[in-house]
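Now for our target.
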Amino acid sequence: MEDDPAWHSAETKDEDVGETSNYSVGQKCLDRLSISLGGNTIVPVGSEQLPAYLVAPEWQKRHVALIALAQIAEGCLKVMIKNLEQVVAMVLTSFPDQHPRVRWADINAIEQLSTDLGPDLQVKYHQGVLPALAGAMDDFQNPRVQAHAASVVLNFSENCTPHILMPYLDGIVSKLLVLLQLYLIKSILVNAIDKSNHMLRAASMECISLVGMAVGKEKFMANANQVMEVLMSLQVSQMETDDPTTIGYGLDSANV
């Protein structure tokens, strides 16, 4: 497996870029083996091998350990539920990993475990899992990790009672709104170029600068570069004199 730069911004077309054919085959084999042999056979092997992989210096080994954990969950359901504390500890320990593809694999494991080991996972370990996912939603430097975390919050929540979700609701909804605003506003800045959209673009410029100030410098940095490129291209292009973005450009650029 290679860390292809295209992976980090891929949505669908290149979502598996950098992976070899053996990677996909290995996933399918693990899934089938765990279903055929069961947890009593597979889990002891995993308990012996996976911890060493999770602390290996190579990011590929840490990544594949989490992928393997997710793949065997369905077939090893009963045994993994009995050892749920150990399973959750392995996953949560990897959330701060320095490599984004390991963090993505970690979130992917939570997605699979939320389905296969729910609602036990949600009832017993929401205090660790939901804050970890919420923290990953702040990873503005790695939008694919960020988006996956937001998506997996939904998977995890499907097996949650309102009583479990309530303490986390305000924080998670606030983060989701920020992500939605940034996505929509950046899209408007890039695509609303007709004269009929002058006011819309002006409002978007103002809004995105306010969002940037609200989330803070560090969180907005990854988006700031793209926004500045758009603003600079607007300045270079020949705007009409009645385009309100010609006035707002300077102020919003300064804010960004």
About this structure: Residues 64 and 247 are 52 Å apart (CA to CA).
